[in-house]
Automatic annotation (TrEMBL), chain A:
Boundaries of every Acyl-CoA dehydrogenase/oxidase N-terminal domain copy: 17-128
Pathway stated in the Swiss-Prot or TrEMBL entry: Amino-acid metabolism; tryptophan metabolism; Amino-acid metabolism; lysine degradation
Keyword Transit peptide in record: yes
Biological process (GO), any one: fatty-acyl-CoA biosynthetic process
Annotated Acyl-CoA oxidase/dehydrogenase middle domain residues: 132-222
Catalytic activity as recorded in UniProt: glutaryl-CoA + oxidized [electron-transfer flavoprotein] + 2 H(+) = (2E)-butenoyl-CoA + reduced [electron-transfer flavoprotein] + CO2
Organism name: Candidatus Polarisedimenticola svalbardensis
Name of the protein in its database record: glutaryl-CoA dehydrogenase (ETF)
Source organism, top-level taxon: Bacteria
Swiss-Prot/TrEMBL cofactor(s): FAD
GO MF annotation list: fatty-acyl-CoA binding; flavin adenine dinucleotide binding; glutaryl-CoA dehydrogenase activity
Similarity section: Belongs to the acyl-CoA dehydrogenase family.
TrEMBL record, chain B:
Entry-linked PANTHER family: ELECTRON TRANSFER FLAVOPROTEIN BETA-SUBUNIT, ELECTRON TRANSFER FLAVOPROTEIN SUBUNIT BETA
Protein name: Electron transfer flavoprotein subunit beta
GO terms of molecular function: electron transfer activity
Organism: Candidatus Polarisedimenticola svalbardensis
Coiled-coil regions, chain positions: none
UniProt lineage: Bacteria, Pseudomonadati, Acidobacteriota, Candidatus Polarisedimenticolia, Candidatus Polarisedimenticolales
Domain of life of the source: Bacteria
Family note: Belongs to the ETF beta-subunit/FixA family.
UniProt domain Electron transfer flavoprotein alpha/beta-subunit N-terminal: residue ranges: 23-213
């Protein structure tokens, strides 16, 4: 028997179809050649490398699990693998693709009119139109039902007022999917760059996801035509269904971040000689590596099964909560431990683990904090909401 | 314009290979196989020529094992139109002439306007297929092409030779071996991968391609006797101390220990 592959100990790859493997290999190569070389510096400079967008779009990574409108029409397992490969480079890169595809193109595709789909989706798939998703507000993201942003009908238009906070891609977005409360419950509006009263500003000096743009949006009596309202959904089910899509991708993505850290620390401990032997020859280092391997492997299996359920159309949102919770926690723990095993060098930009570790501090918060996902499962188990 | 592109399915140069117990083959488990990198330039060039012409067909051909369909699918996902696999696991350790003959059988049947190959297949790096195919088909052939221009049924190919560039002109059909730098191969797109599923890979046996069984078996012209991995490099030594002392020590080592100066 051949020895197991350290990063895929139970050969989960053998469970993928030839097409899924081809998708993964194609994206992996792009990530190795074009993305990994630029992200350490991009993170250091607090800069999102926009110059990658044309190639990302050219490969069809934006909205790749949607069909029609120039989208690739992949299955959800393939989309998961795309996320996993992208996040090997940086969570900021995967965030960009998650937001564009799962949070912006998905609601237009699912809840939009035919006209809206024709108008926005091909350009978004081509990376020519950038989207952002405005749900979170300054006063508490975990409780979106308490949102203060309001939309009031005025003839054939809507007047929007409010503010959104922590919005990925906010200042570079051509269109914002803004969720606002109305007389009939929460509804989604496509707010376009340049509409009077709509402004945005970057949140500067983050210590996490520095290679991703995070912004505030301000809506001051913004007049939005009814043609820009997503008619297909009312209530929190709208934004929550988008989050389910994005969280699904995140649960795969973070496996990539964990693998990057694991690979880095495996190589380091194999070659670092202390007390006359490689670090890798000590029991504590082996225990730590074995634990990383175990957790990466179980996360892989969990995501794959989740993906198969999603491809069969039977995935429940609380199952996504389990994967997001388990896998992000796994990746964050792996990154922190890798950082520690790298010693002092581990705090420098020369190594990737600290960057992944810092990024994952955002990933564990956004798209539902760890606690919120635990409480979602708790509610599922007990029938009682304890938020 | 119909362009035939020959592909080889080879171990990724990044993977660490192990020799199997038989001493002549590689342990395949854990090795990633890929399209030979020079062949990627051939696929890219073919696609560019087709796109520039606004019409044409790019046909991929591989002589290799069943698993080589993955390499053909990659070429189809990049945008090629169809593929032929002459399937036999023994092609990998056959001689260049057998592989060239297999490609020649498809070329004879398809009559392409141009045949593009990588200048060599990484792994065994024999660089034989281009000239052999040219001679078998009695067509002009140039290998290690770094720049290519095609106008009115004629090609102009530049190839770098020691200290100079050779410019070769000739008529089509021709066999050209592509060199690194000819172009920048595209990544397959996800849509391309989806479309590739619907494209056909025509699988033929070696016999269908006119290869006699003996040529792949007992009667091989080239027999692999033994594979050895390069000997591991012995440890390096880092000199310490003042720079002047280091220089003296370096010269002493080179003269007295290594005896190279
Ligand atoms: C880099 C980044 C990018 C983001 N991008 C986007 C985006 O594009 N669009 C968007 O809309 N939002 C975005 N967000 C916002 C993100 O979704 C929110 O930060 C998240 O939902 C948490 O909300 P909050 O920050 O207001 O924290 P809070 O909701 O205030 O939570 C604070 C703490 O309290 C805990 N908590 C909350 N409720 C309970 C409870 N009932 N019981 C026990 N504990 C509780 C939480 O787990 C957390 O630990 C982004 C955030 C970050 C960091
Ligand atoms: C910001 C900063 C400032 C510093 N300032 C100073 C300073 O002013 N002066 C100074 O002298 N030093 C300084 N240091 C160096 C610091 O003391 C060392 O980084 C520390 O001793 C760890 O050594 P190392 O980085 O070489 O890691 P290593 O010793 O290589 O350790 C790497 C990992 O291996 C583990 N490990 C090591 N040995 C074993 C073993 N036998 N079994 C199991 N696991 C093991 C460690 O716990 C760690 O997780 C500084 C470091 C930092 C980050």
């Amino acid at each position: 028997m051949a020895s197991p592959e350290p990063t895929d100990f139970l050969d989960v790859r053998s469970l993928f179809t030839e097409e899924e493997r081809q998708v993964q290999d194609t994206v992996a190569r792009f990530v190795d050649e074009k993305a990994i070389p630029v992200f350490p510096d991009a993170f250091d400079r607090h800069h999102f490398p926009k110059e990658l967008i044309p190639e990302i779009a050219g490969m069809g990574l934006l909205g790749c699990n949607l069909s029609g409108y120039d989208c690739a029409g992949l299955n959800h397992v393939s989309y998961g693998l795309v996320c996993q490969e992208l996040e090997r480079a940086d969570s900021g890169l995967r965030s960009f693709v998650s937001v564009q595809g799962s949070l912006c193109m998905f609601p237009i595709h699912t809840y939009g009119t035919e006209e809206q789909k024709q108008r926005w989706l091909p350009g978004m798939a081509a990376g020519e139109i950038i989207g952002c998703f405005g749900l979170t507000e300054p006063d508490g993201g975990s409780d979106p039902g308490a949102m203060k942003t309001r939309a009031v009908q005025d003839g054939g238009d809507w007047i929007l007022n409010g503010a959104k906070m922590w919005i990925t891609n906010g200042t570079i977005a051509d269109v914002a999917v803004v969720w606002a409360d109305t007389e009939d419950g929460v509804q989604g509006f496509l707010v376009e760059k340049g509409m009077a009263g709509y402004t945005s500003r970057d949140i500067l000096k983050k210590y996490s996801l520095r290679a991703s743009i995070t912004s505030e949006l301000f809506l001051d009596n913004v007049r939005v035509p009814d043609a820009n309202r997503l008619p297909g959904v009312r209530g929190l089910a709208g934004p929550l269904s988008c989050l389910t899509q994005a969280r699904y991708g995140i649960s795969w993505g973070v496996i990539g971040a964990a693998i990057a850290c694991f690979e880095e620390v495996r190589e380091f401990t194999a070659t670092r000689i202390l007390f006359g032997r490689p670090l890798a020859a000590t029991q504590t280092i082996q225990l730590r590596l074995a634990d990383m391997c175990r957790r990466i492997t179980t996360a892989r299996l969990l995501s794959l099964q989740l993906g198969r359920l999603k491809d069969q159309g039977v995935m429940h949102h609380s199952q996504v909560s389990m994967a997001k919770w388990n896998n992000v926690r796994m990746a964050l723990d792996v990154a922190r431990d890798a950082r520690d095993m790298l010693g002092a060098g581990g705090i420098s930009i020369e190594f990737h683990s600290i960057r992944h570790m810092l990024n994952l501090e955002s990933v564990i918060t956004y798209e539902g904090t760890e606690t919120v996902h635990q409480l979602v499962i708790g509610r599922e188990l007990t029938g009682k909401a304890a938020f | 314009m119909k362009i035939l592109v020959g592909l080889k399915h080879v171990p990724d140069t990044e993977t660490k290979v192990k020799v199997a117990d038989d001493g002549v083959s590689l342990v395949e488990a854990g090795i990633k196989f890929v399209m030979s990198p020079y062949d990627e330039y051939a696929v890219e060039e073919a696609l560019k020529l087709k796109e520039a012409a606004g019409e044409g067909e790019v046909l991929l051909v591989c002589a290799g094992p069943e698993s080589a369909t993955a390499t053909l699918r990659q070429g189809l996902a990049m945008g090629a139109d169809r593929a032929v696999l002459i399937q036999d696991p023994r092609f990998d350790r056959a001689d260049g002439l057998v592989r060239a003959s297999a490609l020649a059988s498809v070329a004879t049947q398809e009559s392409p306007d141009l045949v593009l190959l990588g200048k060599q297949g990484v792994g065994t790096d024999e660089s034989q297929t281009v000239p052999m195919l040219g001679e078998l088909l009695d067509l002009p052939h140039v290998s290690a092409v770094g720049t290519l221009e095609i106008v009115d049924g004629r090609f102009t190919a530049h190839r770098e030779i020691e200290g100079a560039v050779e410019v070769m002109e000739g008529s089509l059909p021709a066999i050209l071996g592509c060199e690194k730098g000819l172009n920048e191969p595209r990544y397959a797109s996800l849509k391309g991968i989806m479309q590739a599923k619907k494209k056909t890979i025509d699988v033929r046996s070696a016999a269908d391609a006119g290869i006699e069984d003996g040529a792949l078996g007992e009667g091989k012209m080239v027999v692999w006797e033994k594979l050895d991995l390069p000997a591991p490099r012995s440890g390096a030594r880092i000199l310490e101390g003042e720079i002047d002392d280091q220089v003296v020590e370096l010269v002493r080592c080179l003269r007295e220990e290594e005896k190279v100066i």
